[in-house]
Amino acid sequence: MRPVTKEEMRLIQEIDRLWAPVYPYLARHISEVHGRKAGRVLEIGPFCGVIYSLMEQERGSTFFMGGFPQGMGRFLYEEGRQTGFCDGINIVETDPSLTAIKDRSIDLLIFRGALFFPSLFRVDYDGVWRVLNGGGTAMIGGGFGRYTPSDVIRAIGDRSKELNLRIGKVDTTIEEVRRDVAAANLKANVDIISKGGLWVIMKR
To answer: How many helices (DSSP H) and strands (DSSP E) are in the chain?
Structure first.
C-alpha cells in the first residue's frame, strides 16, 4: 500500500467535505443495519465523515478513526479539529489489516469506498473479522445509503463522480465482490446488498 500523494489528499479532503449533507442519512442506514445503539464505533480508510453523524445521533458510546493509506491519520485529525469533533474521536494511523486495532474490540466498523479504489488499498476481510467484537457489524462498501433524498444526491452527484474518478475509482460488480468474499473463506455471517450502494455486511 503506497502513501497518498498531495493531490490525492486534496481530492479526498474535498470529497469528504462534499458528502457532509449525506452523512446524517447514511448514518441512519448504517444504524439500521447494525441494530444496536451502544458500543465502540470505528470508521476506517481515507473516506471518513459519517462517524460525525453517528456521534450526533448517539449511535455508539466510543468512537475511533483508523486512517490509511499513510498520511491519512494526521489529515483526519486536522479534519476532526476543524469540525469540532476531535476531542470525541480517537484517531490512529493504521493499514487495511488494521494492525493498530485490538482483536475483538469494535462493535460497529464502517469502511466507505472499500470496494472501489484498488490503486489505494484492498479490503482485508480477515483483518475486519479479527477486530469485530461478538455481535458486531462491519459495513464495507460505498454508496448514498437507503435514506438520502434524491435532491441531496443530485446536488453533489456530478462533482462526486468527477472526484472519485480522479482519485482512481473503478466499477465493481456484485459478482466480483462475491468472489472476493468467497476467496477470503470467512467464518462469518456475510450478506451483500445493492440497495443504497454496494455493501458487504459482516456480522460476528
So the answer is: 7, 7
Cβ proximity of 43 and 51 under 8 Å: yes
Amino acid at 7: E
Question: Which 3 state secondary structure label does DSSP give 140?
Answer: strand
Q: Name the nearest CA neighbour of 34 among 179, 140, 177, 181.
A: 140
132, β-bridge pairs: 106
Q: What Rg value do the Cα atoms of the chain yield, rounded?
A: 15
pLDDT digits (tens, 9 = 90+) for 82-116: 766 667 888 889 999 999 999 999 999 999 999 99
Torsion on CA atoms 183, 117, 3, 137, rounded to nearest 10: -60
Distance CA 163, CA 107 (A): 31
Task: Order across the sheet with 189-193: list the strands.
Answer: 89-93, 62-67, 40-44, 106-112, 132-142, 198-203, 189-193
CA 23 to chain centre: 11
Enter the pTM of the model. Answer: 0.94
